[in-house]
Amino acid sequence: MIRPQHSRRTLLASVPGLCLAAPALAQTVQAGRAYVGFPPGGTADIITRLYVEQLRASLGRPLVVDNRAGAGGRLALEALKAAPADGSAFAVTPASMLTIYPHLYTRTLRYDVAADFTPVSPVCIFPFAFAVSARHPARTPQEFITWAKTRDAVDWASPVPGSMPHFIGTQLARLAGISMTHVPFRGSAPAIQGLLSGSIQAVLLPIGELTAFHRSGDLRLLAVTAPTRLERLPDVTTFAEAGLGGLTYEEWYGALLPARAPEPVVASLHAGIAAAMESASIRESLARLEMAPLLMEPSAFRSRMLRERDQWAPIVAASGFNPDE
Fold first, then answer.
1. Average pLDDT over residues 15-21
2. CB-CB contact of 312 with 104 (8 Å)
3. Are 15 and 51 in contact (CB under 8 A)?
4. Least confident of 117-126, 280-289, 296-305
5. Which of 55, 70, 230, 235, CA to CA, is 20 to 30 A from 32?
6. Is-same-fold flag (9-125+249-319; 127-247)?
7. Whose CA is closest to 52, among 96, 14, 6?
8. Hey, what CATH topology would domain 127-247 get?
């Protein structure tokens, strides 16, 4: 496992040969697509474009980023499912589409996590952070819980309803014995603005969306969901240190091929990812995003994906959340 640490645009220039860079693939790919389930400019898009830039340079052939935005990232995976299994198409997707969505969209999910994809490797991993306004009296998770118990309810936000941080927040309320009302926003930026304006009292978001505001003093990070403190944020405690070990979670972005992808195609993509993670530029780029590279063998990655899918089932059910399918 390779784990240094998160940034954005720099990521786009720093993964030499990440996806289909090996000669075996160069012989089969004439023009390909890299599916991403979100609009241009977001984290998923940036990470995918990082790979695409390196692939274009290594193959010298056309490869387009196909932003299948909509349905919370599901459209990209539906497209990947239908794509040829010859290495001409791949996707880079957050874990939630594979580990949480099977329990949310039980009637309408159009892909089977176990049967429709070939997992290759995670490409990066990151925790979430729980934050309040700089004006908030709480400076620790325990102080926040004490404060929340004096109120009828606390309004808080995640990036989007049905996301991993949404369910981590519902667990926080349950474990701490406090009442927290989830306020739906569409994206991290509106949620942060709601926090800064005072319309909500807390947010639980990807760490990289919050660090600049934390360092500028506009908001305060109370805890991170990482298993240990982060090198770049040594002053921020973990939920585990605060006695809430049940809130230790990290989300990964993973590279997938369609089901039945030939072993040489899988091996070549995996080798490209491994080579990219050795470069200083990718490590530095990910560190600025508060992310860390993470490499796993395809079989181990598949096992992790399916294990996490099963682990989220009771958490999603206990939340009582029902999306509008």
1. 39
2. no
3. yes
4. 280-289
5. 70
6. yes
7. 14
8. D-Maltodextrin-Binding Protein; domain 2 (3.40.190)
pLDDT of 65-100, one tens digit each? Answer: 899 988 888 999 999 999 999 988 899 999 999 999
Q: What is the percent of the chain where pLDDT is above 90?
A: 61
Residue type at 290 in one-letter notation: E
CA–CA distance, 51 with 151 (Å, rounded to integer): 47
C-alpha 267/C-alpha 25 separation (Å) is: 10
- Cβ neighbours for 323, distance < 8 A, ≥ 6 positions apart: 104, 105, 161, 162
- List the one residue out of 131, 137, 116, 122 whose CA is nearest residue 165: 131
pTM of the model: 0.83
CATH code for the part of the protein at 9-125+249-319:
3.40.190.150
Q: Say which residues have a Cβ less than 8 Å from residue 263's Cβ, sequence separation at least 6.
A: none
- For residue 68, the one-letter residue type is R
Q: How far apart are the first and last CA of the chain?
A: 37
- Distance CA(4)–CA(288), nearest Å, equals 11
Who contacts 273 (Cβ-Cβ below 8 Å, separation ≥6)? 15, 18, 19, 120, 121, 123, 255, 295
Q: Is 171 exposed, middle or buried (0-12, 13-18, 19+ CB in 10 A)?
A: middle
Per-domain residue ranges for the chain? 9-125+249-319, 127-247
**Could you please report the per-residue DSSP string of 115-157?**
TSEEEEEEEEEEEEEEEEETTSS--SHHHHHHHHTTSS-EEEE
For residue 64, count other CB atoms closer than 10 A to its CB.
11
Secondary structure element (H or E) that encloses residue 306, with its range: helix 298-319
List the one residue out of 266, 295, 269 whose CA is nearest residue 282.
295
d(CA 220, CA 202): 10
Distance separating alpha carbons of residues 258 and 71, to the nearest angstrom = 20
